[in-house]
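Batch job 17 of 40 flagged for manual review because the log was empty.
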Amino acid sequence: MIVEWDDVTTAAHSARALLELGDTRGAANRAYYAMFDAARAALEKIDPSLLKAKTHQGILRNFSKYVIRDQGADQELGRALRQALAVRIESDYEGQRLNRKQVMALLKSMDNFVEAVGRFVGTSSA
């Protein structure tokens, strides 16, 4: 297995811990990576060659096509993953300040995403 589910749960736990410490930027980053790695795990379950996408956008496109469209997963999962990426980019690269309320909403989205994808890949969630 290329994608370890422990990476998903570790990132999710880190996101929660960082928020508790007041590090909203770090929490948003870790929340996105929990979701990104969960998406990668879903793609790996379908066909490991789908992980060959060279960019995050490529993984997101593959997730939308192969998990949402072809496997019938909830379209909200794709929206949540794209939104998490947008928040991470704004925070990590554009210096956007995130407030606790924004990050709490992102963590709720992360929990829902990880739980749903965990059911798809057949493992427990964060």
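Reviewer: the log was empty due to a logging misconfiguration, but the result itself is present. The chain has a mean pLDDT of 94. Unflagging and moving on to job 18.
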